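Human: I wish I could look at a protein chain and see how it folds. This is the protein in question:
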Amino acid sequence: MAKEKKRGFFSWLGFGQKEQTPETEKEQEVQEQQQVIDAQPEQVPAETPVEHHSESSSEPTAEAQAVADAEAQAAAEAKVAAEAQAAAEAKAAAEAQAAAEAKAAAEAQAAAEAKAAAEAQAAAEAKAAAEAQAAAEAKAAAEAQAAAEARAAAEAQAAAEAKAAAEAQAAAEAKAAAEAQAAAEAKAAAEAEAAAEAEAQAAAQAEPEIHEQEKPTKEGFFARLKRSLLKTKQNLGSGFISLFRGKKIDDDLFEELEEQLLIADVGVETTRKIISNLTDGASRKQLRDAEALYGLLKEEMSGILAKVDEPLNIEGKMPYVILMVGVNGVGKTTTIGKMARQFQQQGKSVMLAAGDTFRAAAVEQLQVWGQRNNIPVVAQHTGADSASVIFDAIQAAKARHVDVLIADTAGRLQNKSHLMEELKKIVRVMKKLDEDAPHEVMLTLDASTGQNAVSQAKLFNEAVGLTGITLTKLDGTAKGGVIFSIADQFGIPIRYIGVGERIEDLRPFKADDFIEALFARED
C-alpha cells in the first residue's frame, strides 16, 4: 500500500508525464503488478516480524529517489532536446525564410531584367522596322528618280543621236561634194600647170644657146631671188639704207632699227640679240657714221643664217626616206612634187607615198605630180591609215631599189595633240622596216605666217624631231624676216626656200646668196 501511495504522490506531482510513451506506461503497469505481488504477505516465521517491517519501509524511499533522479535527468535532457529542437527549427525557419526571400528577390530581379530585355528588344525591333521602312521608301524614291532621269537621258540621247545623224549625213554629203569639186579643180590646175611648164620648157629649148651662156643660171636665179625678196627688202636689208643715211649712231637710231626688225618679223629675242651685238660692235670699232653700221648689220644677220646653211645630202641610204610634215595650206604637197622633179633631174629614182589620206583631193594632187614626171605613187583610198600607206611605200621602194622615197602626211594643227601623236605613230611604223628611217624629217613653213611659223617649228620639233626646214612663199610676203628668228632659235638646217611657182623656184638654201639678195642696192 505504501508503494502505491508513494507512486500516487509522485504521479500527482506530474514528474515525467510528458516523456511517457505507450511503451513506458506498459512497462510501469508490469512493474506495479509485480509490486502488488511482492506486497502480498509471505509465510514467514512468527519469530521475526520486527525485522521484516524495517526492510519493507526502507526500500520504497530509495526507489522513489532513483525514480526522481531519473525523471529529473530525463526532464533536463528533454528540456535540452526541446531547446535544441526549437533552435534547430528556428534556424531552419530562418534559413527557409532567407531562402524564400532570396528566391523572391532573384525572381523579382529576373523578372525586371526579362522585362527590360523585352522592352529593349521591342524598341530595337521598332527602330529596325522604322529604319527598314525609311530605307525602303528612300530606295523607292531613288529608283523612281533614277527611272525618270534615265528616261529623260534616253530621250535626250535619242534626240541628240537623231540630230547628230542628220548633221553627219549633211556633212558627209557636203564633204563628198567638196571633195569632188576639189578633185576636179586640183586635176584641172595640175593639168594647166603641166601644160604651162611644157610650154615654158619648149620655149626655153627654142631659145638660142648663146642666151644661156650670156646669162648663167646662178645669175638668173639671183635676179629672181632679188625680185622675190622685194617686199621683205622694204623692211630688211637694203630697206635699212634710208634708215641709216645721214644719221649719227645714238640710242634713237638703235630704237628705230629695233622697231624695223620687229616689223619684219625677226622676232623679239633675235632682234634684241642683233641690237646688242651691233651696240657692242659700234662701241668697239668706235663707229660714228650710221652708214658704217649698215655693213656691220649685214655681217651680223649673215652670221645667223650661216649656222643653218646645210644642203640636204641623200647619199649613203637606199631608199633615202624623207617624211614631210606641216600644217594645212603651207604648200607641202607642191613642195614634194618640185623636190621629186629635181631629184629626178639629178638622175635619182624617186617614189612618192600619198600619206595625206585626210584632205580631199590630196591623193589625186600627188598622183598628178607623179603622172606628169613619170614617178610612181603609192596610195590608198581617202580615209585610209596614213602609217599603213607609208609602210607599204617603204616596202615597195626597197623591192624596186628606189633612191629616194618622199612621204606626204596630212596637214595638222600644231596644237592638236592627237594629230601629233599620229605623226609619232608613223615614225614608229617606219622604224619597223628601217631603224634609221625617216632619214629626213622636213617641216614645210609658210613665210607669210610670220611668228606663227616659229610656234609650228617648236611643236613639230618636240613631237618628231625635225632635221630640216623648207620655207615657202617668200616671194609674196614682207614677213620674210622670220627666217632669222627660226635659224636663231632652233638651229635646224634650212634645206630649201620657195620663191615662186615654177619647179626651179624651189631652191636649195644658200645663206650668202640670200643675204646678198636681201641687202643688194637697186642703184
